[in-house]
Design brief:
Order of helices and strands: EHHEHEHEHHE
Helix content: 40-55%
CATH topology: Rossmann fold
Oligomer: single chain
Number of domains: 1
Distance between the termini: 41 Å
Shape: globular
CATH superfamily: HUPs
Strand order of the largest sheet: 3-2-1-4-5
CATH architecture: 3-Layer(aba) Sandwich
Low-confidence stretches: 1-14
CATH class: Alpha Beta
Number of strands: 5
Strand content: 15-25%
Number of helices: 6
Largest sheet: 5 strands, parallel
Mean pLDDT: 81
Radius of gyration: 20 Å
Structural class: alpha/beta
């Protein structure tokens, strides 16, 4: 059927039309996680959304004979891991700035990274979580598990997985 009128011109997204306003992009600093940053930020920009980068530093669990040794190791561990977190999050900030997108970053410590990701997204009211799939299969997937799989399983917030 022929339309007598031409198609309407493209209308830019209006605030009320935006499906995702705030996207959480957790990173573990791995090559795969870093590789999807550009995809996530590009998607956010096309969606008219803001991005927040998140890194969860695992809590140190160690057994030692001397309490003093544990305290020194814990402090050194946390200091080194927070330095790594700043590097991982700086990459998200760099890509966002390069693509002209507003971005903020957070680093938290927790026993279970997937729980911290979900809790943070829920409490801060994010609309979407974008994560990388590490693609572990077989015994490695069974033994190591996947934070992405855990977030997918437990989150009530939508999750977009990049391979």
């Amino acid at each position: 059927m022929r339309e007598d009128r031409p198609f309407p011109p493209f209308h830019p997204l209006r605030k009320k039309d935006i499906m995702f306003k705030h996207i959480l992009s957790p990173t573990d600093g791995s090559v795969i996680s870093t590789a999807i940053i550009r995809n996530c930020i590009t998607f956010a920009k096309q969606s008219g959304a803001m991005v927040t980068g998140l890194h969860v530093v695992p809590t140190l669990r160690a057994l030692t004979e001397g309490r003093a040794l544990l305290d020194v190791d814990r402090d050194q561990y946390q200091e080194e891991d927070m330095a790594h977190a700043r590097l991982y999050l700086a990459e998200i900030e760099r890509v966002a700035r390069e693509l002209g997108l507003l971005c903020k970053t957070l680093a938290y410590t927790g026993d279970q990274p997937y729980e911290v990701i979900i809790k943070t997204a829920r409490e801060q009211g994010w609309d979407l979580i974008c994560m990388a799939s590490h693609g572990r299969r077989g015994i490695a997937g069974l033994l190591l598990g996947s934070e992405t799989q855990k977030v997918l399983t437990h989150s009530q917030i939508p999750v977009l997985v990049f391979r």
